Amino acid sequence: MIDLLVAGGGPAGLATAVRAALAGLETVVVEARPAPVDKACGEGVLPTGVRELAALGLGPLPGRPLRGIRYVRGAHRAQAAFDAGPGLGVRRTALHTALARRAEALGVRTVTGRVGEVGQSADGVAAAGLRARWLVAADGLHSPVRRGLGLELPGRGPRRYGQRRHYRIAPWTEFVEVHWSATGEDGEAYVTPVGPDLVGVAVLSTLRRGYDDHLAAFPALRARLAGAPAGPVRGAGPLRRRVRSRTAGRVLLVGDAAGYVDALTGEGIALALLSAGAAVTALRSGRPGTYERRWRALTRRHRLLTAGLLAVAGHPAAARLLTPAAARAPALFTAAVRALQ
């Protein structure tokens, strides 16, 4: 019997596997697709996430340092720099590749397949034809393991969707730029530098329409990007995922599978890395129930701030005032950004 079976070989699953291997646990990852897998992702890693990547033993990753967050709406600008070191704009595929290589170097075995049904006993779990003492489900936003274990709750509130495309253009900023639409009804556009001549632009909205139609709500940004698309559009959603519990017997949920509020604050990768570490710590102690409390503590600030911003974004009049208000209260905006880092 192996120590740990990980469902999902994306960044959250591989970070869990690396943490487990560093802790001396025999670990197997089950993933249907070969690495690297490209998905809709903002590709910005906050300073906390950068520190977690270093703790996993990853060397410098290709990408661009990020100084902070900038809000843009028309002529209004509000920005705040991180004070805990830089973040990192990095292609998801580059991050995925680095994590996969690190896991392999530590002796983590990857099995091609899907976990499917999970069986549990007093001393272990059975899934994908394997037996393990524990299972971590890091199988994403639409987690089949979470659903199969009855841990998923019905969604509430408006559904939000995300789409992302890359553009072959030199970055014009060292900040993640959040562009708020002029009307307040068309969502937001997120610009993340990820290379010397590459930026990723993600759009988030409750409106279901094509990427180019979304980008039309940001005419100045669209004009800057004209003629420079460098890849396909990738989408994801609905984003919000409510979860009954992060634990079910000998199964723990990590990353997006553990529940998701929204991509608005850009913390997805950092929180996935933090939850991976918390899950392995709980399993090493033989007390998986402690993971739920630790997950809630790690994500509390993010969940509260994101929920508050979503409430503002859901009211067009309030959304139109957000960036001007942040520009007039820079200390408050800086405090909010640094609470996330």
Describe the structure.
- There is one protein chain.
- By secondary structure, this protein is an alpha+beta fold.
- The chain has a single domain, classed as FAD/NAD(P)-binding domain (3-Layer(bba) Sandwich).
- The chain is built from ten helices and 20 strands.
- Strands 1, 2, 8, 9, 10, 11, 19 and 20 form an eight-stranded mixed sheet that branches. The protein has a seven-stranded mixed sheet with strand order 6-5-14-15-16-13-17. Strands 3-7-4 form a three-stranded antiparallel sheet.
- Helix 1 (11-22) runs parallel beside helix 3 and helix 7 (268-284) runs antiparallel to helix 8 (289-313).
- The mean pLDDT is 93.
Helix content: 25-40%
Beta fraction: 25-35%
The succession of helices and strands, N to C, reads: EHEEHEEEEHEEEEHEEEEEHHEEEEHHHH
Strand tally, please?
20
User: What would the average pLDDT be, to the nearest integer?
Assistant: 93
Structural class: alpha+beta
Offer a few descriptive terms.
341 residues; alpha+beta; FAD/NAD(P)-binding domain; eight-stranded mixed sheet; 20 strands; 35% helix; 26% strand
Could you outline the blueprint of secondary structure elements for this entry?
Layout: E1 2-7, H1 11-22, E2 27-31, E3 44-45, H2 47-55, E4 64-66, E5 68-73, E6 76-81, E7 87-89, H3 92-105, E8 109-112, E9 119-120, E10 125-127, E11 130-137, H4 144-148, E12 152-153, E13 161-167, E14 175-180, E15 188-195, E16 198-205, H5 211-215, H6 219-225, E17 234-236, E18 242-243, E19 247-248, E20 251-253, H7 268-284, H8 289-313, H9 316-328, H10 330-340
Parallel strand pairs: 1-2, 1-11, 2-8, 5-14, 11-20
Antiparallel strand pairs: 3-7, 4-7, 5-6, 9-10, 10-11, 12-18, 13-16, 13-17, 14-15, 15-16, 19-20
